[in-house]
Amino acid sequence: MDIEELQTFVEVADAGGVSAAALRLGVSKSIVSRRLARLETELGIQLLARTTRGAALTEAGATFRDYAARVCAEIEVARETILPSGALRGRLRIAVPLSFGPQFAPMLAQWAIHHPELQIQTCYSDRFVDLIAEGFDCAIRVGYLQDSNLIARCIGPSYTRLVASPDYIKAHGAPESPEQITAHEALMQGTETWQFMDGDKVVSVRAQGRFKADNGTALVAAATAGLGIAYLPAWLTDEGVASGALVPIMTRYLPPQAGAYVIRPPGSHPARKIRVLTEFLIEAFDQSPHFAGAARV
Fold first, then answer.
1. Tell me: domain 160-248, CATH 3.40.50.2000, correct?
2. Nearest alpha carbon to residue 236 among 202, 213, 204
3. Rg value, the chain, Cα
4. 127 with 213: CB under 8 angstroms?
5. How would you class 93 by CB atoms within 10 Å of its CB: exposed for 0-12, middle for 13-18, buried for 19 or more?
6. Which pLDDT score is estimated for 286?
7. Mean pLDDT of the chain
8. What was the pLDDT predicted at 291?
């Protein structure tokens, strides 16, 4: 039984269709279909029922999927155990915040140069990606982590600042304490809560505003245009602050230190390629001017 056929079946089962699985695997739909056909022929049983919406597991397929996934995982662990210093091979799917692309993309490109046998697929999006449902091996998340069953490792600090344009400050003033934020137009991704440090105490504020965007770069543009105040990572606002287009405000109350993390699905044996990527990023972040010793204001 071919390991590629097992891996392909697991991807189709998890993705819910041939097209989605082909995208995850980076191969054509015809290749996926041929692998499935060979596997079903060898087993002598139908694993998937094709529908207009994709593919649904048969009863036998649902049972076999769990066994196939365990076999694939064990083979991956075995390969890494017997070849701990070997070249990284196979496919690695990574989800990265779109706003973080300019900082992360050069790091990932440099890492890819050192591992020519590794196939890297990166999805840049500021939406919240479901690693398990969408078939990602890992993700980069920046900010404050929510409670989940995912496993996270911090790769570096991330600092946040409150900013506004000189024109906005001239027209509306600037808040001097967290309580005054509700009197200002806030530029937000959704309905998030902003946090600030008052000594050792964390103060939370539910900001309000009419302009929202699911992309950090768009919020920087809105703040620069004078639409309101924004609570953004320092690495997104460094250029604007340096040029004078943005001004750090309410600097007496700094946001708590956040972090950048590599997130992966639960499992006792993280893939070696994820471990190697994580170690590389820890070193890269330590040398990055956006993160190492980043200014708090």
1. no
2. 213
3. 23
4. no
5. buried
6. 79
7. 86
8. 59
